[in-house]
Prior knowledge:
single chain, 209 residues, alpha/beta, Rossmann fold, five-stranded parallel beta sheet, 8 helices, 5 strands, 50% helix, binds ligand Z5A, binds magnesium ion
Amino acid sequence: MNGMRRGALIVIEGVDRSGKSTQCKKLVDSLKAMSVNADLVRFPDRSTHIGGLIDKYLKQKSHLCDEAIHLMFTANRWEKKEEMERLLKQGVTLVVDRYSFSGIVYSSIKKNMKLHWCQEPENGLLRPDLVFLLTLSENEMAKRPNFGDERYENTETQEKVAKAFLDMSREQGDWEVVPADGTIEDVHKVLLERAVKKIAEVERKSIRN
Ligand code: Z5A
Ligand code: MG
């Protein structure tokens, strides 16, 4: 790497309204304030052509079969891979709002969608250095602002999603389960501390696929 330090790939996952977008933004802002080169990435990225099709599907303005929408979400990550890799190599830490794990979880809870089939097209994407899973108690989930009108925004789906994420966290290294019931600042402090450590730990290591 010739003295060049790479950035870290840090993902935030969790159920609807667990505070992922809020925390991603704060984490990037705090890292920048500490002179760490950092950028925000979010999935789905609704700004691309594929992202536009995903947006229509989520807003229930189009119908796609479960397999087709699954592959679109995955393609939306593949189309960003080169750019993400380039930024990491240039030393930019990427804070990612949802990633492959959302893709696998939201699809595999559907009837007739096998976990293994859902995982396969994600293989070969950049592997995160750290995944934060934000969890909410049922009590706190009920207090967060109401569901919107998008697909998946209902209690039954979110309960299945919460369980599937927890199951996934038990099978993988590099995951930190962070209870996100506390204040925005409390949760942020935990994430910032762990992220700073991880950035230093991986800066001389290779980027993983
Ligand atoms: N999806 C998929 O199926 N396959 C895939 O591959 C991917 C996604 C990538 C849209 O995602 C849908 O796509 C999603 C999964 C599916 N479906 N669902 N559900 P999205 O990321 O675009 O979804 P979103 O609309 O941004 O919602 P969200 O991400 O679920 O919310 P959030 O980012 O976790 O929460 P937030 O926006 O930061 O906060 C929500 C509210 O709570 C807000 O008013 C905050 O001010 C408040 N908040 C945040 N933190 C706190 C604390 N600590 N205390 C009190 N209040 C708080
Ligand atoms: Mg969000």
